[in-house]
Specification:
This is NAD-dependent dehydratase. By secondary structure, the protein is an alpha/beta fold. It has 11 helices and 14 strands.
């Protein structure tokens, strides 16, 4: 099969490309970074350098493909997250229609249907004669990588860093060894390895359901404080806790971090959906098959990188 993978060689794109090339498929990887071309070709794939904001580029790249994996990277420079996501989703639909692609697997988030600004899945409903699957992964393990300096507390007391991937947002204050957000503490959530997501996407790309389908993806369920303890133990900070903030405190923190007000409100809404348990209820209702990579496995990798820097 001829398969197009968007998202460059990111946390999902790289392992997904490796899986598909290993299966013998002809893979094209879309990246906006020309420096990624050699890395893409080294994996045995073809590089298509351009932006998903360019419909003409997407249509050319998608032409002749049997299937497309589509994802929209977040932008923290866009004050209106919902408007940005819908514009990019519409670019995809126009390009897919013009290229007459018959199978598309779209990356979303497990809180997408609960947060109006993030829910762009309906944009793809305009496609006719196209088999569509929406992926709803839970909170990524790899978000913890973005917290390293704050966990170390290198003079960053009082500064806030926002983290997000497919529904996970957190604030970390490294000097006190805390994870903070308007979900956390004893709230139960699902974490997921990008490797398990890549496996799931690879499976879906080879299927062709007649109706639009949704697939949730997770690796392990636990309380937020349990996750903090696993990461903390691996790096030698067993006291690491995940403190639950109010929505108001979270909103104030994001504004202090310089996020536009509308964007900050959307992010608080996402975490509030997780704190309420609605995201977890939807996940359980779908009864997905859990992945293989556990948080303890990831924590070992995290600790190696953490102690190198």
């Amino acid at each position: 099969m001829k398969i197009v993978v968007t998202g460059s060689l990111g946390n999902i794109g790289k392992p997904l490309t490796q899986i598909l090339v290993g299966q013998g498929h002809h893979v094209t990887v879309v990246s906006s970074n020309p420096k990624k071309q050699q890395d893409i070709e080294t994996l045995g794939a073809k590089a298509a350098i351009g932006s998903i904001a360019d419909i003409e580029f997407l249509a050319r790249t998608f032409t002749g493909a049997n299937a497309v994996y589509g994802m929209i990277p977040l932008s923290f420079t866009e004050p209106d997250l919902g408007s940005y996501l819908r514009r990019m989703a519409q670019n995809y639909t126009q390009a897919l229609q013009r290229a007459q692609v018959k199978r598309v697997v779209v990356m979303s988030g497990w809180a997408a249907d609960l947060v109006q600004a993030e829910n762009v899945e309906d944009v793809f409903d305009v496609l006719t004669g196209v088999s569509i699957t929406v992926m709803r992964p839970a909170s990524f393990y790899t978000n913890f990588y973005q917290s390293m300096d704050l966990i170390r507390g290198k003079g960053l007391m009082g500064k806030l860093l926002t983290l997000r991937y497919s529904g996970l947002w957190a604030l970390l204050s490294g000097k006190t060894g805390l994870l903070m957000g308007n979900y956390g503490g004893d709230d139960r959530t699902v974490f997921v390895s990008p490797l398990d997501i890549a496996d799931a996407v690879a499976e879906e790309l080879l299927l062709h359901p007649e109706k639009k389908t949704t697939r949730y993806v997770g690796s392990e369920e636990m309380a937020c404080n349990e996750a903090a303890q696993i990461i903390g133990k691996a790096i030698g900070k067993p006291w690491l806790k995940w403190v639950l903030l109010t929505d108001k405190q979270m909103l104030q923190g994001m504004k202090m971090a310089g996020l536009p007000e509308k964007l900050a409100e959307t992010l608080v809404e996402m975490q509030a959906a997780m704190h309420s348990g609605k995201t977890l209820q939807n996940f359980h209702r779908s009864q997905p098959r859990m992945g293989k990579v556990k948080l303890a496995d990831f924590a070992k990798e995290f600790a190696v990188v953490y102690h190198k820097k």
